[in-house]
Amino acid sequence: MKEGQRLWTKEESVLAINLYCKIPFGQMHSRNADVIELAALIDRSPSSVARKLGNFASFDPKLKERGVKGLENVSKLDKQIWQDYMHDWDEQFIESEKLLAKKKHTTIEQLNYIDLDTLKDVEGKEKERLVIVQVNQSLFRKMVLTNFNNKCCITGITQPELLVASHILPWSKDKGNRLNPKNGLALNTLHDKAFDCGLITITTDLKIKISPSFLKNSNVLSIKQNFIDYDGKPLIEPQKFFPDVEFLKVHNERFKG
Length: 257
What we know:
This protein is mainly alpha-helical and 257 residues long. 46% of the residues lie in helices and 6% in strands. The chain has 2 domains: 10-87, no CATH class; 136-254, no CATH class. A two-stranded antiparallel ribbon has the order 1-2. A two-stranded antiparallel ribbon has the order 3-4. The N and C termini lie far apart (58 Å).
């Protein structure tokens, strides 16, 4: 270590991976406002934070295939934190979000713009549960849409009001992967509904597969343009977290072929 430098603490690294999950791959640089904000929060330089984000990127197998490399001094702590996240997204990410809220002297609800007025008639454990659900949904949306550069990964639609962070494994079926960005696709509301119903699926080689049932209405222009024309086309690839192949296999089994 160079003179004047100090080792990253676990707390600092946890805050860094929290940010890594929230910003597009191409914006992990020292000029990014979010990078600058975190740097000020932990008393480090924006360049130092940007390098740490790059180190986390170097652990992603898909990014490795693109030639993304971290610094030579990637620490054991970085690797351990990455592995912890990969094996327990829900627990790890919520804990990092609580840490971020504490550092910013706020609450996890305020940090994620949760409107507590909607829960004013709910009390106790049920209120706590509903708050966590809303926080989870807010965080998942942020991570998934960022991962696909805020566009539908089938159509390329970028209108925020029409975009949904869609779970590959349903929210109700897999409690351990509710926040896992590898369990998410950015879809517009129409294709999100079709995906949820099994009328669309994504193959393990990231190709769009449309149910043959649409062919019965191939003469309807909207059916042709919105569904049939996309059959067999490649998914618009994510920037960091690629859909988990095992998750896609499960959804493929629900597909109405």
